[in-house]
Design goal:
This is Indole-3-acetic acid-amido synthetase GH3.17-like. By secondary structure, the chain is α+β, with helices and mostly antiparallel strands. 34% of the residues lie in helices and 25% in strands. The protein has 16 helices and 23 strands.
Length: 495
């Protein structure tokens, strides 16, 4: 029987989706958690007995659908469970009141504060997605003076007005000048390289999804977490539970998920390479025979299709996966990209993978100069003819460097490098002036946090937020455009 609905984040396709939930589906989640935690315990020991987890968690209020059934994000549903609320005080540093705080900034402040107070007990740091972990670190950069003062005095800042957060914090806080001094000395340094390991010296790993669109955050996370492994434990989506990472110590770029055939019925639509490394659906879905899980082939790419006990039948998830190998006879998959995230001015199609590859090549020009590309997204500007690709970049200087010191010639070269790295069809269209010069718009610090805040204000859970690789929303576009501090164009057609 249908008991409630789950809501997707809505950042990938523009609108949240409602997914049915049954009691059987909920039981599968419990089994799934036990399976992926067993893999973590195998490599890191029994973390449930070793200490506490500093996990940044955020819930949104449930909504009532027209049927009278409740709907909530996957993460909110988990946090609402009795089992989770029972184990929370023992295993996590964050009280339930901070997770359900309606103001994400107040909740984040309190979760970081209580994580710092209990820093000697913390054995893992993380969140669902890498982007949320980075949001927490950057928030800490901006508020560490205030956090230290609160720890020193044992009093919570006045701007934290949520009664639940204040009551929960009061049970843990007491004046501790010595602890505040230690944290202040750690934070008051020229470089924040390795800051996570310094603040939480007993932490064994950083737990968050680093695959798919989150791979763009790997370099920055490794900077802040120097020496700690980044662990993506599992692959699940709003539609279905899919697989676990049996080698959590592998590099993020090598992560493969072993599919669990008892979680859903998995089928796959074959996908072919169209140009260079880009993935293109070269078939009519209705005429293409679906491949069962037992018949997938190593090295082949597929679009995931699921049928679930909750009622989804041959539902196309929109994820493109590649078979990377097998564990015994169970297929293992690497996440390649989202199917529908593409840029196109004319008939060329630039995928998420194409875009990531080109950005990776271009941002390499910044690294030797002491600058880091922290965020990016894109859209197609067709306000003039011919249209052109626009990339929004947020750049940060290492060791106190100011982005104003960055030579404009380097940014122009980044534009050229991106165009040279894009696929053959794009380069031909550029030479024929069917596509105009690629543009990079540099935005000021905090612009992508403002973008995240916009989506959260529209109902997205901060725990499930995934920054879109391609902007579709006019309102979101205005947020970034209003924060542009520099515009740069490729000066010539790529070779």
């Amino acid at each position: 029987m249908l008991s409630k609905f789950k809501t997707s984040s809505g950042t990938s396709r523009g609108q949240p989706k409602l997914m049915p939930v049954t009691a059987e589906f909920a039981n599968k989640w419990e089994l799934f958690r036990g399976l992926y935690e067993s893999s973590v315990i195998k490599h890191f020991g029994d973390i449930n007995q070793a200490g506490k987890r500093l996990e940044l968690m955020f819930a949104r209020p449930e909504i009532e659908t027209a049927t009278g059934l409740k709907a909530a994000s996957v993460s909110t549903s988990i946090y609402n469970e009795c089992n989770f609320r029972t184990i929370l005080p023992k295993l996590y540093t964050s009280p339930i009141e901070t997770i359900f705080c309606p103001d994400p900034n107040q909740g984040l402040y309190c979760q970081l504060l209580l994580g710092l107070i209990q820093r000697d007990e913390v054995i893992t740091v993380g969140s669902i997605f890498a982007s949320t972990v980075l949001r927490g670190i950057k928030f800490l950069e901006n508020h560490w003076h205030e956090l230290c003062y609160d720890i020193k005095t044992g009093r919570l800042s006045d701007w934290i007005t949520h009664s639940g957060c204040r009551n929960a914090a009061s049970l843990v806080m007491k004046p501790n000048p010595e602890q505040a001094g230690l944290i202040e000395n750690i934070c008051n340094c020229k470089s924040w390289e390795g800051i996570v390991r310094k603040l939480w010296p007993k932490a064994r790993y950083i737990g968050c999804v680093c695959t798919g669109v989150m791979r763009q955050y790997i370099a920055e996370l490794e900077f802040y977490c120097r020496g700690l492994p980044l662990v993506s434990t599992s692959y699940a989506c709003s539609e279905a539970i899919c697989g676990i990472n049996l080698e959590p110590l592998c590099k993020p770029c090598d992560v493969s998920y072993t599919f669990l055939p008892n979680m859903a019925y998995f089928e796959f639509l074959p996908v072919e390479n169209d140009h260079d490394e880009s993935i293109e659906m070269k078939r009519n879905d209705e005429d293409t025979e679906l491949v069962d899980l037992v018949n997938v082939k190593a090295g082949q790419c597929y679009e995931l299709v699921v049928s679930t006990c909750a009622g989804l039948y041959r539902y196309k998830v929109g994820d493109v996966l590649m078979v990377s190998g097998f564990y015994n006879t169970a297929p293992q998959f690497q996440f390649v990209e989202r199917k529908n995230v593409i840029l196109s001015v004319d008939q060329e199609k630039t995928s998420e993978t194409d875009l990531f590859k080109a950005v990776t090549e271009a941002k390499a020009l910044l690294d030797p100069l002491g600058f880091i590309l922290t965020e990016y997204t894109s859209y197609v500007d067709t306000s003039s003819a011919p249209g052109h690709y626009v990339l929004f970049w947020e750049i940060k200087g290492k060791e106190g460097k100011n982005c104003k010191e960055l030579d404009p010639k380097i940014m122009v070269e980044c534009c050229s490098r991106m165009e040279e790295s894009l696929h053959y069809t794009y380069r031909i269209y550029r030479k024929r002036n069917i596509i105009a010069a690629l543009e990079i718009r540099v935005v000021k610090q905090g612009s992508f946090e403002a973008l995240m805040d916009y989506y959260v204000s529209k109902g997205t859970s901060l725990s499930q937020y995934k920054k879109p690789s391609c902007i579709k929303s006019e309102e979101a576009l205005k947020i970034l455009d209003s924060r542009v501090i520099g515009k740069y164009f490729s000066p010539k057609s790529p070779l």
